[in-house]
């Protein structure tokens, strides 16, 4: 029998004993719906999940509304699927299932440069290295396929495949949901008077995917190539994740499907997959199923996966430290006024440590202390529902995870003020603890968000998942163009927003850094972002921009050595990188012969 994600257990608990809805989707929305990729359907609806299993025999035991969305044979047995809520326990109990994980919302990591990565020198060599023969796959918000940066000189498309996961077509001959377009489809659209009448796909209003694709592989032919991408002769595969523009960008299950699709469609050619979104949900040491899936794919020759480090460093989303035997530690979690969204935090510590967790609400009520292997639910004086779920050997790591879930319950919003998370140690072997706040799906950073108080927060260990995967190249941001043009004092330094390492278990991350501030690249035609130097360009910042520089650099390497693995490409980029950064967790900054990275001093 497998283990069920605490989020899914909470979802089941919230509907247990309640009459099954029959009045339509609006009446059937359960707790944590936006946190677990819930969709309306018969009864309590369906959820997307990731499943670790020895085989697919469980798929035959589910109901008619369930489906496997990714069933490619793989070494590690990680699959994705869509399952009816009332079938979750049946799935978890199946003898072949080891683990069922909720599909968690992901967030875009958006918060001069080509010269900094020294790609121009390679482009202008007597034997130019420009990415020919390699596929760059951009898994993001979509793309403006009409933009000149993604077209050949004859006007035809450089995009081989475009899978729009959110298209309101449930699958075609090649994909389990959404619709995919081939190069022939895109060429036909580009030849029409109204391209979007033929292929009705556009990027979101931010244009995140278009901007990222332009950095990695745009072939700017105007303005003297000033805004050309790093690998301008690479072909493209684009997967448009479904999300809320400027807020969320897909889920972990949909990301797994997207990366597998890109790798399979690119074969037998080498491929670099760029991922510029992430989440705080998980143990930050590569144990989530999406990270295991990416590690398996990145172990194949000719497959490189690049991930942005995240922009969480100054968001106060992590707290950590050490606790001794018979000691206690209190973490202050600050919840702003008017917060109607569920709050989720995870606390992780070693399996040999016996640490209890209790919670005190701002209104004063204190829960009992929850030990490893226990689960406790209570209601605060204000009417909020609180669950503390402590799971030993979480995700098969040997370590304990404690998931804290706060929902509004009978109240209109989460209690405003300081929530105290109280850790109490009985026996301790190591004593290290780490806690993360999982961002809410509606949180775009434009409003005040929940955070740890200054006395509790720790800016280290803030790499977003799946960036803590072992074989994924994780990229931080450094400054190449100051926000204030007269101030050059910060050039070359790590961006203050760029997430820091190490991982929870101490592995060094990020692996590299690259330009990520005020980066000019392609602007989609429907963008709400301001013009850059002209209507076809705009300037954005974030580790999303940094990751796409390294994705382009990796494509240049693969164009010369298509047989290399992602680990080998990472090592080459690190060896060729400039030393820089600030502090022991600073990454290498891209500055290699094939891209500029920076290694710590």
UniProtKB/TrEMBL annotation:
Annotated GO MF terms: serine-type endopeptidase activity
SUPFAM superfamilies on file: Subtilisin-like (SSF52743)
GO biological process, one term: proteolysis
Residue ranges of the region described as Disordered: 577-601
Domain of life, source organism: Bacteria
Keyword Hydrolase: yes
Active site: 140 (charge relay system), 208 (charge relay system), 544 (charge relay system)
Pfam families per the UniProt record, alphabetical: Peptidase_S8 (PF00082)
Signal peptide span: none
Alphabetic keyword roster: Hydrolase, Protease, Serine protease
InterPro entries in alphabetical order: Pep_S8_CspA-like, Peptidase_S8/S53_dom, Peptidase_S8/S53_dom_sf, Peptidase_S8_Asp-AS, Peptidase_S8_His-AS, Peptidase_S8_subtilisin-like, Peptidase_S8_subtilisin-rel
UniProt domain Peptidase S8/S53: residue ranges: 131-319, 461-583
Gene3D superfamilies: 2.60.120.1290, Peptidase S8/S53 domain
Residue ranges with Low complexity bias: 577-595
Family under the similarity heading: Belongs to the peptidase S8 family.
Designated name of the protein: Peptidase S8/S53 domain-containing protein
Species annotation: Phytohabitans flavus
